[in-house]
Amino acid sequence: MSNKTIAFIGTGNMSYAIIGGMVKNGFDANSIIATNRNPEKLAKVEADLGVNATSDNLAAVKQADIIVLSVKPQMMAELCQTFQDAGIEMSSKLFISVAAGITVKRLREMLGFDAKLVRCMPNTPSLLGKGVSGLFSDAISDEEKSIVTDMFSATGIALWLEQESQINDIIAVTGSSPAYFFLFMQSIAEKAVNLGFSHEQARLLVQQTALGAAEMAFANDDISLEQLRANVTSKGGTTHAAVEYLKSQNLQTTVADAMDACIARAEEMEQQI
Ligand SMILES: NC(=O)C1=CN([C@@H]2O[C@H](COP(=O)(O)OP(=O)(O)OC[C@H]3O[C@@H](n4cnc5c(N)ncnc54)[C@H](O)[C@@H]3O)[C@@H](O)[C@H]2O)C=CC1
Ligand SMILES: O=C(O)[C@@H]1CCC=N1
Description:
Layout: E1 6-9, H1 13-24, E2 32-35, H2 39-49, E3 52-54, H3 57-63, E4 66-69, H4 76-85, E5 94-97, H5 104-111, E6 116-121, E7 131-136, H6 142-153, E8 156-160, H7 165-175, H8 177-194, H9 199-219, H10 225-232, H11 238-248, H12 251-272
Parallel strand pairs: 1-2, 1-4, 2-3, 4-5, 5-6, 7-8
Antiparallel strand pairs: 6-7
This protein binds 1,4-dihydronicotinamide adenine dinucleotide and (2S)-3,4-dihydro-2H-pyrrole-2-carboxylic acid.
Binding site for NADP(+): 9-14
GO biological process, one term: L-proline biosynthetic process
Domain Pyrroline-5-carboxylate reductase dimerisation: 164-269
């Protein structure tokens, strides 16, 4: 592990998950600073994860070697301006932005100099070490790349991308997609309640089945997803009836269209922010 000091600026849902994954997988909590302007969130991150928590962004940035920018995209410009206004020497620091919809070029404009910068697109299962992080940089050293790889490998799979535009693609594939799975699970659970199961039972049944299906895919990664689905589907049976209905409602096209909407929104944000 690196001996760098890492500051997370704006530690909300996403950075909490990244820090949690890092700390559980061997990163020293003492080398991590988490900031938030919300005292309750700060207290939680400190109590749960044992990192140094502060509301003082500028002190954190001054102290850190690596700065993870993790406020909402719409708040990024205002945040970066405060670093500039404080006249902090930032040229030797490595910045990592997890924000959707802000390009490297725009982030450098916000920071006001030609910063060493990585764009990262993580997802919230990082907290359990089961995340995926897409990474892109146009200019960092091999040593810095290796440190960033270590950070995000501690939270799951770290995948370096060749083109910046692939960050928008991976938002659709992994950054936003936990929400698609949760929506699917929610739909099954709501119907289960409708059928007479209690809320607790419905939740338990759906999460166990989702976990089982994901673990089946992992345990049989030589078998196509289509085949795994076919293995549940008896000819003329019940699953067949359900799957044929989903297909008749264009589930696959709907999912593809949803992912296109996700990418289009990221591109639109790149124009607006
Ligand atoms: N939530 C997710 O699944 C993912 C989020 N992202 C990106 O992560 C970033 C953060 O998203 P979330 O964690 O979901 O949002 P969030 O709202 O949970 O976290 C942002 C936190 O920043 C704090 N904050 C805002 N301005 C601040 C300031 N000036 N100084 C200190 N703290 C400040 C807020 O109090 C908030 O707790 C976004 O840019 C988003 O695009 C990327 C991938 C996945
Ligand atoms: O919804 C968003 O914009 C962020 C980026 C990926 C997941 N959450």
